[in-house]
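To: structure subgroup
Subject: Chain for Friday's discussion

All,

I'm putting the inputs and outputs inline so they're searchable in the archive.
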Amino acid sequence: MSETNRAKGHLAAFITILIWGTTFISTKVLLKDFTPIEILFIRFIIGYIALWCVRPKLMPLKSRKQEGTFLLAGLCGICLYYLLENISLTMTQASNVGVIISTAPFFTAILTRLVSREKEPLGIPFFLGFVAAMAGISLISFSDGSASLNPTGDFLALLAAFIWACYSVLTKKISGFGYSTIETTRRVFFYGIMFMVPVMLFSGFTPDLKALISPISLGNMLFLGLGASALCFVTWNAAVRILGAVRTSVYIYLVPVITVTASVIVLKEQITIKSCIGMLLTLAGLWISEQKWGGK
C-alpha cells in the first residue's frame, strides 16, 4: 500500500470520528422533541436520499450471497448497534456506555482473526494500546468520581460493541465486491432502515412534524443525516477498505476525547485534570496500536 493511500485512509477515519464525536450535541437537542427511534429513522432516511442524489445509479448484484452480506451489515451497523446503544443509555450511566462501546476495536480484532481470510497482524502494540486507551477513556468517563454498575444495561452496551465489530468485518468483506463505496453504503442503509420499520410499529412512531421543520431541529437533523450518516458511513467504509477493519476501528478510541473537547468548546463545560490525563492516555493508546503496521 502506498503512503498516499494510507494517508487517505487515516484521514477518512479521522474525519468520521471527528464528526461522530460531536453528534451527542445534536442528539441531545433533538431528544427534547423526538424519541431515539424517530431520530434514528429520520437521520438515515435523510442519509439514504442524499446518497441517491450523489450517485443516482442502480447497483447490480452478482449473487444472493452478496445480498445477504449487505442485509447483515444493515442489520448490524444501522439497526441493532444504535438500538442497543440507545436502550443501554436508558438503563445505565452514559459514562459506562462510553467506556464499554470503546471495546469495539478489541472485538473487531478477534473477529477478524477468526473469520477473515485476510488476516490483519495483531501484536503486543495493539494490546498495549488497547489497555492504555481503555485506561484513558475510563478516566475521561469517570472523571467526576461517579461509577455504578447496571448488569443489564452494561451487557447491552457490550453487545452493541460486539455488533459494531461484526459490522466492521462485514464492511471489509463488502469492500472486496468491487462496487462503489457510496453504492454499497446506500444498500446497507436500505436494509438498516427496513429492519427499523418493525421497531417503529411497536414503539409508537409519531414524530412531531412541526417540531421537525423548526430551524434548530431541522439543522440538527440534517447534520445527523447528511454528516453523521451519509458522509461518515462512506468515509468509515472507505477507511476500512484501505486500512482494514482492525486498524480503522482503533480510531473509536478518539470519540470520548472529541466529545470532551466539543463539550468544552460548545457547551462551555469544565474539564478536569483526570480528563486531561485520560485524553493523553487515549491518544497514546491510539498511537501505540498503530505501531505494528509502521514501516510496511
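Points worth raising on Friday:
The radius of gyration is 19 Å.
The mean pLDDT is 85.

D.
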